[in-house]
Amino acid sequence: MREKLQTDFERLLASYLHDPKEENLYGVQQLNKWIMDQKIPPDEVLNHYIETLKKLIPDLHSDVKTSFDLLLEVMVGYGVQYRVDKNIATRHQELEDEIEVAVHLQRTLLPESPPPLEGVDLGVASYASKTMSGDYYNFVQYGDGILGIAIADIIGKGIPAALCMSMIKYSMDDMDHHQPEPSEILQELNTVVERNILPNMFITMVYGVYDSLNHSFRYATAGHEPGFIYRADTGQFEDMDTQGLVLGVTSHVEYPEFQLHLAEGDVIILLTDGVTETRFDGEFIERADFCELAKKYLHLPAREIAEKVYKRIYELSGYQMLDDQTIIVIKRVGKNKL
Amino acid sequence: MNITIREHSEREHTIDLTVFGEVDVYTAPQLREKLLTLCQGGSNIHLDLAGVDYIDSTGLGVLIGAYKAQKSSGGKLIISGMNSRLTRLFRITGLQEIMEFGPDNQEDGKS
Asked: Ranges for the STAS domain (chain B) (predicted)?
């Protein structure tokens, strides 16, 4: 390998010294690529160059020869840093590859799309501010037209939040789902989270059960940003009730339940605080402004409402997404209007 | 954005901390470090947030961590000076029910 460097330098240097034209430098680009591929450090490259030069010009002035020592010394230092940087770059690439696998795994924790529910149109938009999201949502099918709907925000972002998310997902999967009681589900999750997370971590969550036979939504909240209910008869949004401690602070917490009844055209919007803490020109979006914005899209299918609201907020924020954002839309429609 | 943390200890068994700025993902580590050291001392901590406009979830996590540390060591964490936005945050998260607060917190804006 080193012989190639020596012979290439001899050939290139001889032709350039004989005729210093730009086209005689083209061969250097090829050699440069080969040097990079072989990961030869800069001090070694310079050393070969000096040896070649001494061979081609035997009567090189002794001061020039001596001056190479100085240049070599500089390049040795540069070479050390070059190797450090190479190692960092390699490690960085390895981490990127690992994160890519983790992102893929995280996607498997989230449902691809909501399951169908008679007389209800469901839609989700969920976007991560970084590679991995701290927002979680889930749909649990209990049969007989009953669907569990969960939305959660795990403090922090990235890998720690993703690990926490898997804990929530598998705890929910392990639960006995014959009696869907939102308050009990949050209590159980709180016990798991409180035992297993770092002192300064916590999770906020809403767990609700939609019964499509009587179109009721029974839910409990754990410190989560309140959702909205749009009433078609008044044309107004109302805040959903919220009361309950975030998950993971203390054991034995009670989570009161609330219930909503939906008439045709009514829409529930659940969201994470990444949406409501978006800033426009430095000011937080007001909940009233959010409602005005959302109203423009309520005639659309649920998935489109969620996407359009997300996109509009993203536009208004100047395309700055500081936190993960998730919007779930639950729209009561007529039986044949899905 | 930076935060400033001022510490006074003129009262017996109580350390007063005054915070200025926004407590977010970038500045929360500063507050966490300060509180972590103080929580090991066994004194009550009085946290004045009158100079704080906004606390994000990372900042809230720091306060929860301090609350837990104080609870296990027998000390108190007392929070005061909250603006209406912060009061709302503590109500929504349910922390209002379990943490201790001074008298000078603004009313919840209910927004």
From this structure: 17-111
Interface residues of A toward B, Cβ cutoff 8 Å, are: 153, 155-156, 198-202, 204, 222-226, 242-246, 249-250, 253, 273, 277, 286-288, 323
Q: What is the Cα–Cα distance from A313 to A319, expressed in whole angstroms?
A: 9
Extended beta strands in A128-225, E state: 135-143, 146-154, 203-211, 216-222
CA atoms within 13 A on the CB side of A321: 19
Per the listing, tokens 């020869």 go with A65
Give the count of domains, chain B.
1
Residue B86 belongs to domain with CATH number: 3.30.750.24
In sequence order, the β-bridge partners of residue A236 are A231
Are the CB atoms for B93 and B57 separated by under 8 Å? no
How many C-beta neighbours within 10 Å does residue B26 have? 14
pLDDT, residue B110, reads 53
Bridge partner residues of A137 (DSSP): A151
CA distance A320 to A323: 9
Q: What is the homologous superfamily of the domain A113-332 according to CATH?
A: PPM-type phosphatase domain (3.60.40.10)
- Residue B98 · residue B75 · CB < 8 Å: no
Average pLDDT over residues B64-69: 94
Rounded to 5 degrees, what are φ and ψ at A63? -65, -40
CB contact under 8 Å between A245 and B94, yes or no, is: yes
- Assess if residue B108 is contained within a domain: no
- Retrieve residue A35's tokens: 């040097």
User: How many Å apart are CA A217 and CA A209, to the nearest integer?
Assistant: 6
Q: What is the pLDDT of residue A223?
A: 96
Q: Could you state, in order of their start, the residue ranges of all structural domains in chain A?
A: 2-102, 113-332
Confirm whether B94 is domain-assigned. Answer: yes
Which one has a higher pLDDT value, A209 or A336? Answer: A209
A201 closest CB neighbour out of B25, B61, B93: B61
Domain membership of residue B49 as a residue range: 3-101
pLDDT in tens, A252-290: 899 999 999 999 999 999 999 888 877 777 778 888 888
Fold of A2-102: 1.10.1240
Dist. CA A221–CA B38, nearest whole Å:
33
For residue range A69-98, what is the model confidence (pLDDT) as tens digits?
999 999 999 989 988 998 999 999 999 898
Q: Do B95 and A153 touch (CB under 8 A)?
A: no
Task: Give me the residues of B, 16-75, that contact A with CB < 8 A.
Answer: 25, 32, 56-58, 60-62, 64-65, 67-69
